[in-house]
Amino acid sequence: MSLAIDDAVGLARAAAAPQRYGRVASVVGLGVDVVGLDCAIGDVVTIGDPTAGSGTVDAEVVAASLTGLRCMPYAHLSGIQAGAPVRAHGGPLLVPVGPGLLGRVLDGVGRPIDGRGPLTDVAWVSLDNTPPPALERTRITEPLQLGVRVMDTLTTVGRGQRMGLFAGSGVGKSSLLSMIARGTDAAVSVIALVGERGREVRDFLEDDLGAEGLARSIVVVSTSDEPALLRLRAAFVATRIAEAFRDGGADVMLMMDSLTRVAMAQREIGLSVGEPPATRGYPPSTFSLLAQLLERAGTGARGSVTGMYTVLVDGDDHNEPVADAARSILDGHVVLDRKLAVAGHFPSIDPLASISRVASRVTTREQAAVAAVLRRTLAARKAAQDLIDVGAYARGSNPLVDAALNHEAGITAFLQQRMDEQTPFDDAWNRLAHLTTSMGVS
Ligand SMILES: Nc1ncnc2c1ncn2[C@@H]1O[C@H](COP(=O)(O)OP(=O)(O)OP(=O)(O)O)[C@@H](O)[C@H]1O
Ligand SMILES: [Mg+2]
């Protein structure tokens, strides 16, 4: 009861507080300069007069000086004039969290865009959150089923691990993510689609994810045509939603497609507020932002957020700065190979180039042994591939290569997987154990 009175007093106080207004000094490029307002970085403001009919735009303070604020909008700036009023909300963005979000599709600042009415059964929390302290985080000891055989066995992912999916464009990143969304045994999946083409979003929701996948997912979307700040925020909103489920004790799968586009959004913002470009035009803030974002996934005191981040590697340049930074922060990477995709081998994962840094902690000794046999067989075959191609490989010279050739069909059938096919974790290991036993190598 007393809580209700406190709430009522709080609401009355907020309603009675003076509204603070400033003015638009100029609109230049992507940003708006505002004078006459006292705000902190990250605070939300509304630009425009709601009674004037020209519409309002919400924006966020991204830089501050004694002479004024620089704000970046969450929507396009058409209709905004110099001199327009600017109202401070008095704090940063609030994000909806909670079970009412399951099955919903949100925009980059957490507003529903699926036409299914307002959000219900949600709480509103501040976008900012600090990652759990390093020593309070439980260690990663349990595997998480992805439902994709080659990943579950050769790059086993632990609950609370952060993995990168590295690939060039059109090699199958998004398709692999949707396979994981449907096949994982995580209680909740939060999927951030950042900087995707608008056309792809419906395809992803309706064909790839499907009604059954969506029912235990939350999708946060910001397409490539939306303002940079909205694209950037989509990544943090999805992360905040995942953290809230984790803090409730759930094992959450957080998927982000793509981390590169998040970095590109930060590049646009950083350059437009006058930061110097450093590596390949990315201002230094990009790399600290990536670290901040990725550090928020992981285990908590209870529950976990397992992160899957796609990273675009342009023209197979694996030293691209975003890929390089991501690889150094993440706990493992899966490399998708264009040659495999072109040959119709899906998922186009190159197991020999992929590694999970926690695999040894989340698999049994027997599982690790059979995975090692398959890896050794694939590696031996790869080393001998040139000889095989020219017909110069003599059977009998290497038992591993012989096994690879004799059981080629079985190995391929294990590694390839249709998009609509999900394999439970134990079944994947049983199949692999069967395969390696039949190969007769150790
Ligand atoms: N498991 C699969 N089975 C069959 N085809 C697949 C599979 N995965 C991907 N593909 C094919 O590869 C194409 C590209 O896949 P996808 O859109 O996932 O790539 P991407 O890496 O996300 O591309 P982009 O960089 O453009 O976002 C798909 O249109 C599909 O035809
Ligand atoms: Mg894609």
UniProtKB/TrEMBL annotation:
Molecular function via GO: ATP binding; ATP hydrolysis activity; protein-exporting ATPase activity; proton-transporting ATP synthase activity, rotational mechanism
SMART domains membership: AAA
InterPro entries: AAA+_ATPase (IPR003593), ATPase_a/bsu_AS (IPR020003), ATPase_alpha/beta_chains (IPR050053), ATPase_F1/V1/A1_a/bsu_nucl-bd (IPR000194), ATPase_T3SS_FliI/YscN (IPR005714), P-loop_NTPase (IPR027417), T3SS_ATPase_C (IPR040627)
Superkingdom of the source species: Bacteria
Signal sequence segment: none
Gene3D superfamilies to which the protein is assigned, alphabetical: 3.40.50.12240
Compartments reported by the entry: Cytoplasm
Domain AAA+ ATPase per the UniProt entry, residue ranges: 159-340
UniProt GO BP: protein secretion by the type III secretion system
GO annotation, cellular component aspect: cytoplasm; proton-transporting ATP synthase complex; type III protein secretion system complex
Keywords assigned: ATP synthesis, ATP-binding, Cell membrane, CF(1), Cytoplasm, Membrane, Nucleotide-binding, Protein transport, Translocase, Transport
Catalytic activity: ATP + H2O + cellular proteinSide 1 = ADP + phosphate + cellular proteinSide 2
Family annotation (PANTHER family): ATP SYNTHASE, SPI-1 TYPE 3 SECRETION SYSTEM ATPASE
NCBIfam families noted in UniProt: fliI_yscN (TIGR01026)
Protein name: EscN/YscN/HrcN family type III secretion system ATPase
